TrEMBL record, chains A, B:
Chain ranges of the HTH hxlR-type domain: 8-112
Name under which the protein is recorded: Helix-turn-helix domain-containing protein
Keyword DNA-binding among record annotations: yes
Keyword DNA-binding: yes
Keywords noted in UniProt: DNA-binding, Transcription, Transcription regulation
One Gene Ontology MF term: DNA binding
Organism: Rapidithrix thailandica
Amino acid sequence: MQSYENKIPQDLEYGVTVTMKVLAGKWKPCIIDCIANGMKRPNQIHKKIKQANKRVVNQQLGELYEYDIVSKKVYQEYPLKVEYELTDFGRTLLPIISIMEEWGNENAQKIYELAIQRKENIAPLEV
Amino acid sequence: MQSYENKIPQDLEYGVTVTMKVLAGKWKPCIIDCIANGMKRPNQIHKKIKQANKRVVNQQLGELYEYDIVSKKVYQEYPLKVEYELTDFGRTLLPIISIMEEWGNENAQKIYELAIQRKENIAPLEV
DNA sequence: TCCTTTACGGATAATTTTATCCCTATCGCT
DNA sequence: AGCGATAGGGATAAAATTATCCGTAAAGGA
């Protein structure tokens, strides 16, 4: 997230805040989900989340790495091969992500409609 | 979040994204937590999350309201009295928040240290 | 030699979110 | 009339995040 020095001190008083610190980022939970599902290579991840900007996905991968959520292995082959995996620590996030995934799937329609009501700019739901 | 028209269409493809849409916001999970714990009045909430800017808390309360997470009751007394409560829908978020709270509390120290290593600007943990 | 594939990141712009400041309104009390 | 307590929001600045563009590197193959 911060590739620059941030100015306002962040608060880690609340448990939720701590978790949010790790999970917040437009694609982080998706990235974790991808990796958990065996898509280890950056390429695969980019293809899966094609709405996402590569640069951003890379940044967020970097942060996940620095927060010990994913590990990174570089193979010295060519073309280059890199593999990310969840660390043990990272795996402890899985229950959270899966419950979020579940809640989101159950309520996607409702949230979508409320968002439309608010005239938000939402990409149409795929069929 | 958006009090203006947003330009980049948001994606609700993934369950997690949907959930994030509802939960993302610097203080939203905290606000929900407060309300769940009986702090119904804005005043109480502001006092509890005193690091948070009032204006922002109000904004986020407003969004939670528009997403049917909280309900709002205005009493015509003076001084004014307002009470927020979780809706049934809002209550379905509680398991998510509580698991996040738990994870965060367990790992606060570790995340804190990693953040310091990254030279992030973190408010010192209270004792 | 040029093109492809893979992975990555600098520089910068654009967008979105948060922070700051200060004003409104209402009633009861002094 | 002036003040306190309550809840809220307009206008705008600042900060943080995400998007866009394009360049690097390295080996193999046409």
